Amino acid sequence: MDTLANLGEGFLTVLTPINMLWVLIGAVLGTAVGVLPGLGSAMAVALLLPVTFSLDPIGAFIMFAGVLFGGLFGDSIAGILMNTPGNSTAIAGSIEGHAMAKNGRAAQALATSAIGAFIGGILASILVVFFAPRLAELATLFGPAEYLALAIFAFIAISAVVTQSIIRGLAALVLGLAISVVGIDSISGTSRFTAGIPELFDGIDIVVITVGLLALGEVFAVAGRRGYSDDTGLIQSKGRLWLSLRELRQALPAWLRGTAIGIPFGIIPVGGAEVPTFLSYGAERRLDKRRKKPMFGFGAIQGVAGPEAAGNATAGTAMGALLALGLPTSATAAILLAAFRQYGLQPGPLLFERSSELVWALLASFFIGMVVLLILNLPFAPLWAKLLKIPRHYLYASITLFAMLGVYATSGKILDLVLVVVIGLIGFTMRRYGLPVAPMLIAIILGPLAETEFRRAMAVSEGDPGVLIDSPITITLYSVLALTVAFVIVRVVRAKLAARKEVTV
């Protein structure tokens, strides 16, 4: 009953004109940025970070929630209508979605995507409301060693397990850890890697890092593509915006299966919704093969419904893991963790006690944001697609201007403008050579936490390293991590051996 009462108070906080305005703005901005290829919800949140500091925390995070879920649906619009998903999380749903569009069923594909996003997000939000407080109570059992184990789990899982190349993932992780130690050591008070520049004593601002890495990095990457054409090959969305009874019967089980697949992955640090969306796509494809007339490859509605529900379910439970444990399980969650810290807040068990009004307002905004997005996206998806016709040079010049103004307005430091360009060039280089961005962001956010907790554990144990693996929680986390890494290594070795056999044959 306490949960329902707290959620009711959260709805009362959100259902005010000004906060409803922030929900609407977040949904609109998230969808608009998500539609544009190469961008997505992570970049939308990064670009909004500098301009939300004038808002109160509740208004800012309500807007961020709208941006998060709006960006996911915007990614799908580009994938369905243009076969160019706005983000990697929309690739799985775009395979059959674009096939539906080519068959003249673009409107039905967009409706399937919107309803799937709504169902997956709503069911995940319900679970978060009832289980996040319990998860926060469990987190009170965590000490320095447990938090260090959790951080290491996130580092290795996102760097080695999810990325296509283990070496590149670990290289991005090391680069992020190197950036995270710039500044004054919080325990000894010694300056590190500051080159004697006073402005770097507080470290590199997370706003500078996220905007440079995501926004300017993408701008430089687009500018570096020679011979790029602005001809999008956009398919017009025509026809009915609703689903027939037969289509609903086909899509409903896929929506529910996708939600069930996506929910657990929001809690596990696997880098985002790429894994559950492809798992859902694979499950629906296997089920389709059993039918008398398989539809996959010709525009199967189940191939859109499952991945879309899985992606939003993962995003919903990822917010629960962030709020209850302080654990970012994706790049977007890492940026939101940085946003919390900018407001002097630390997600975790104490957040539910110290900032309960913010937490429950944020949880209530998930439900309201889902409804707003459904209303916005069902009839207006073709209108969002018009953004794809904006010439790239105008679009990315505007993003650059907005990013630089936002960074300067936050700090007023010329050095930050230099740093954001340097980090943007690092982001461009990472894209050029295939280094993933998510491990670097996770390292920058969780690196200081891991260092602090390690040193605290050593101080409490008087230098005994055994304390790091001296509890059931740490043993469990390290055991699961070791098994997962071993599984990945075996899979990679088998794939290489199979490739060699094919070459020799």
UniProtKB/TrEMBL annotation:
Keyword terms, alphabetized: Membrane, Transmembrane, Transmembrane helix
Domain DUF112: 20-441
Transmembrane segments: 20-49, 61-82, 109-131, 138-160, 166-188, 200-223, 261-283, 321-340, 360-381, 393-426, 433-450, 475-493
Signal peptide stretch: none
Designated name of the protein: Tripartite tricarboxylate transporter permease
Species of origin: Pseudoclavibacter terrae
